[in-house]
Design brief:
CATH class of the largest domain: Mainly Alpha
Structural class: alpha+beta
Shape: elongated
Helix content: 55-70%
Distance between the termini: 39 Å
Number of helices: 11
Order of helices and strands: HEHHEHEHHEHHEEHHH
Number of domains: 2
CATH architecture of the largest domain: Up-down Bundle
Strand content: 5-15%
Largest sheet: 4 strands, antiparallel
Number of strands: 6
Strand order of the largest sheet: 2-3-5-6
């Protein structure tokens, strides 16, 4: 019944799940926009200042003493030395930092989403276990009802079987709710909590990957995006230091002007009309603006970024070692649950149930065997889940 319902409803596999996160998850799309923003800022850093154009009109009492009129136009442009290239380099370096930070964000988002997918697989596995337990309890109660009518067992045993069936039914209903809620979490990651996923493909499987600690550490120092972001931040502080020095350099302003003067008709100081031209160069003198604090602040920020990078390297080493230890312990725990143990528990349950139906054993022994088999199944599924999660955390620690 469970598999028939799942086959007729909307299903979700892991690859489709990851693709939907990349295309529909609002947080992911929002973080991805930082790349476009960084590229736009690089383009904006290439912008140069526009020239200025000014006009001026003068009247030297032309209407009263005929000293004439004048019209002038002036074009000015500030010239910066190496500031534009410095700004572009800083913008590109910020883009590199943003890219590394985005890669680190995606690594963590994918790991969290994968763990939630495994949680849904665990909920599905536990649902199957409780469904099987309910079937055993129902079979036991049906048989005990008939045996009670025949007078083969007491009413207390029949009532106990009914209680076990009721308890198994309630646990099954609760497990169904847990499974559906786990699917809602997946739909939320996909950007649509009302997507309506009712089943997922895949099952819990024990990982087979084997690693050495040194290989993991080398891979982590090579692949970790947060370490790369910290190193890019060190480079950014160096570029900002160079830009700060260049920004302190004065801009030179070049001025080109032209003016037209009308004829002066004053009898005491006559003059003909004429066109005049001018060229000017303004050079600020960096006397009062000298401040060593700007340079010192840049150097301190660079030192701070280097210390943060070293701190991240130490944290990465600790994370990898701890994740490796957890993964190895989880593998060993799963290996303790072998196929022989699972089959033996089921054989004991079937044997106890058969003996009980023949009146050779008590109901308590059957219930004990049933609970033991159920707990072993749950413990095994949880152990495999823990091992798969430990592998995800180990891969997260090395930046994969």
């Amino acid at each position: 019944m469970l598999f028939m319902v799942e086959a007729s409803t909307q299903s979700l596999d892991y690859n489709t799940y990851i693709d939907l996160i990349k295309s529909k998850n609002a947080d992911y799309v929002s973080e991805e926009l930082n790349m476009a923003i960084g590229q736009a800022e690089v383009k904006a850093a290439r912008t140069v200042e526009d020239p200025s154009l000014s006009f001026e009109y003068g009247n030297n009492s032309d209407w009263s003493i005929a000293m004439g009129q004048s019209v002038s136009a002036e074009l000015s442009k500030s010239i910066s030395f190496s500031k534009l290239s410095g700004r572009v380099k800083v913008a590109k370096q910020k883009l590199s930092v943003s890219q590394a930070s985005f890669d680190d964000y995606w690594c963590n988002l994918k790991a969290d989403a994968t763990i939630d997918f495994y949680s849904a697989l665990l909920a599905k596995e536990l649902l199957l276990v409780d469904s099987q337990a309910y079937q055993y309890a129902s079979t036991l109660f049906t048989g005990d009802s008939l045996r009670f009518v025949k007078g083969e067992i007491s009413e207390l045993d029949m009532l106990q079987s009914r209680l076990e069936q009721f308890q198994a039914q309630q646990e099954l209903k609760g497990r169904q709710t847990d499974y559906l809620n786990a699917l809602v979490v997946l739909d939320e990651h996909c950007g649509n909590p009302s997507r309506g996923t009712r089943s997922i493909e895949g099952r819990l499987e024990m990982p087979t990957q084997d690693f050495t600690l040194q290989q993991l550490l080398d891979s982590a120092f090579k692949n970790r995006s947060d370490l790369r972001a910290a190193e890019e931040l060190v480079s950014l502080t160096k570029q900002e230091e160079k830009l700060a020095i260049r920004e302190r350099m004065p801009d030179v302003e070049l001025v080109l002007g032209a003016n037209y003067n009308t004829r002066v008709r004053n009898v005491e100081a006559p003059a003909p009309e004429y066109m005049g031209y001018s060229v000017g160069l303004t050079i600020p003198l960096p006397v009062l603006s000298v401040n060593s604090g700007v340079r010192k602040a840049s150097v301190l920020r660079q030192q701070q970024a280097q210390l943060q990078s070293q701190s991240i390297r130490n944290s990465i080493q600790s994370e990898v070692i701890r994740a490796y230890n957890v993964y190895q312990a989880s593998l060993q725990k799963v290996k303790n649950y072998n196929e022989v143990l699972m089959i033996s528990a089921q054989q004991v349950l079937n044997g106890k149930l058969y003996a009980y139906q023949r009146g050779e054993t008590s109901l308590l022994e059957v219930l004990t065997a049933q609970h033991s088999y159920k707990e072993i199944q749950k413990d095994y599924a949880t152990s495999v889940y823990d091992c798969m999660v430990a592998l995800v955390e180990l891969e997260r620690s090395i930046g994969q």
